[in-house]
Design goal:
The complex is a heterodimer of chains A (137) and B (177). With 137 residues, chain A is mainly α. Chain A contains 8 helices and no strands. In chain A, helix 6 packs antiparallel against helix 7 and helix 7 packs antiparallel against helix 8. Chain B has 177 residues and is mostly helical. In chain B, helix 6 packs antiparallel against helix 7. Chain B is globular, with a radius of gyration of 17 Å. The chains are: A mainly alpha (137), B mainly alpha (177). Chains A and B meet through helix 1 and helix 2 of A and helix 10 and helix 11 of B.
Chain lengths: 137, 177
Amino acid sequence: LNEHKHEAVTEATLNVIAAIARVLNSDMIGTMIIQIHKLPLNMLGEYIKIVKLFYINILHNFTRFQNETKTKQELSNKINLNILWEAIQDESELSNKNKLATLDVLIDLMIIFDLANTSEFLIKAIDNLKIGVSAVK
Amino acid sequence: MVTGILSEIAPTFTKVEINHEDAVEFIQAVNSFLYEENSGICQKIRQLPPTQVKDLNEEEIVSVVKAYYEQSGDLMGKELYCAKIQLELLLVFLQSPYIDKKLTALNEIKKMFDKRTKNKEVPGKTLAKWLSECNVIEYIYKEAKHPELISRSADLINILAANDKLEVETLELIWDT
């Protein structure tokens, strides 16, 4: 029961973090991005949909900084989706189900954020699919 | 002129004449008084035993606040006092051992904020200041640690953020959970 409660607390907390990403100032967003990037891969995969919501809410928040090009650019630079890519490539931490869910989220976010390196990521993702994501555990 | 309960607990204010320029300072002075350690109503609310807290309900909160409001006559800032007393009750609810009371407290706080934002009766910053001073977020994440309470805390954090009262330390506390 305690384990389930801990999981429920973790999920609820991540949901709150994702929700408040809409109202944080740029410094706080930067802090949260750093923390998200520090998540263990297994947690990242398990709660990937919440992580996706977090990133989307950051994007929503960008509209508040539309007159602050520098701030917007700085935040964009801080968003590093490599962490998702690393999670997909990891061979021990994530189940296949979570890897595929993470890949879906990565592709969605790359398109949503219109990242400069989208093409590069997509090519890698496709290559990975070619060799078979299911080949990993 | 102060009448009723307030004349008993705040006699020093009975002869104060208020103009608009002094209103803010006066309200702050009364609020400070109400929040002193031995300040009648708030003190009694804080000392409510759990058995009484369990039996209280939302209607009773409204009833208590309304009764206080009626007896405070034409005192300026009485809406603010009522809000403070209601918040004091809700804090007791939140810190009670009963999950339904805790949830009621969070729901009521959000309703108060929504209503006051809409009507502009009491600045949202008053509510944010109260949340901050009473360490409500800290209580939810460090002591209560209940998923339902945590889920509802996003509303409270929004109130803090909207009034520039959200600190990085609060975010770190949430993250550390």
